[in-house]
Design brief:
Radius of gyration: 20 Å
CATH architecture of one domain: Orthogonal Bundle
Mean pLDDT: 86
Order of helices and strands: HHHHHHHHHHHHHHHH
CATH topology of one domain: Endonuclease III, domain 1
Low-confidence stretches: 224-230, 241-248, 250-282
Oligomer: single chain
Number of helices: 16
Helix content: 55-70%
Length: 282
């Protein structure tokens, strides 16, 4: 199902050309970006600014920083703190984000051009899982799938996951499923970049306002067949971390002819289910 969603979105919207850099904008089918460390930093800057806001607001903040010639760590560190806050105000939470950006500038300078690990990024104040994955995927071309609110809303609406699924579980679902189909790391990275961008484009149209999914063509084209019995079993597994709970739920679901093929598909691909319902902290 994860692959089918990607194929449908790509067919509908085409290549997205993310990340949209100030110098070139969107660049469909060109996966050679970022070209230099300044563009890598621009991705990180945008990833921090986009927390709890829209990318349109982020672009306004980046425009303000560009007008001040302050899209590099050195230039930002030289800005008066109040000037920095004023520049990024369109992105919201400007006091907090100014602090996060300055923290990241210090961290970025210590890297001296090397690629940081995900764990290193998560130790930087203000960098959470989504922001870290965004920086790695688009700033360093690492094969780390980025999950956002649109992603979870879409999968919940299609009844692929429970609303109790956590970031780590959803990320693993995408990465494990795609890795089974695409063995080459570079190709996976390109798909991850396109997939997230396509979800954003689709999400802006159908998942930005409640009721989520109104008019979403995926609901008709994919015809999700998740049974309520299976969903209940999955939720029990997430809560109790017992695989036999999932097995019981699958067996019960298989008695309903409507869901036999679906359960067989799940049984043949338990990796996806374990990824989705894997125990552990958020």
């Amino acid at each position: 199902m994860i692959i089918k969603i990607y194929e449908q979105l790509l067919k509908e919207y085409g290549p997205q050309g993310w990340w949209p850099f100030k110098a070139v904008g969107y660049h469909p089918n060109d996966y050679s970006y970022p070209k230099n460390s300044d563009q890598t930093f621009e991705v990180a800057l945008g990833s921090i600014l986009t927390q709890n806001t829209t990318f349109l607001s982020v672009q306004k903040a980046l425009d303000n920083l560009e007008k001040r010639n302050s899209l590099t760590p050195k230039a930002i560190k030289q800005l008066d703190i109040d000037e920095l806050k004023l520049a990024i105000k369109p992105a919201g939470y400007f006091n907090q984000k100014a602090s996060y950006i300055l923290n990241f500038c210090d961290f970025f300078n210590t890297l001296d051009g090397r690629v940081p690990s995900r764990d290193e990024l998560l130790k930087v104040k203000g960098i959470g899982e989504e922001t870290a994955d965004s920086i790695l995927l688009y700033g360093y071309n690492e094969d780390q799938f980025k999950v956002d609110a649109y992603t979870k809303r879409l999968l919940c609406e299609l009844e692929i996951i429970s609303d109790k699924a956590k970031y780590k579980q959803i990320k693993a679902l995408f990465e494990d499923t795609i890795a089974k189909k695409i063995k080459e790391k570079e190709e996976r990275r390109k798909i991850y970049q396109e997939y997230h961008a396509l979800i954003v484009e689709h999400g802006k149209r159908y998942y930005s306002k409640k009721p989520y999914g109104h008019g979403c063509f995926l609901k008709n084209e994919l015809q999700t067949t998740t049974s309520s019995i299976y969903k209940e079993a999955l939720e029990n597994y997430i809560e109790q971390k017992e695989f036999d709970k999932w097995q019981t739920g699958a067996k019960l679901a298989s008695k309903d002819e409507k869901y036999i093929s679906f359960v067989e598909e799940l049984s043949n691909d338990q990796g996806d289910i374990l990824a989705l319902a894997s125990p552990g902290p958020y």
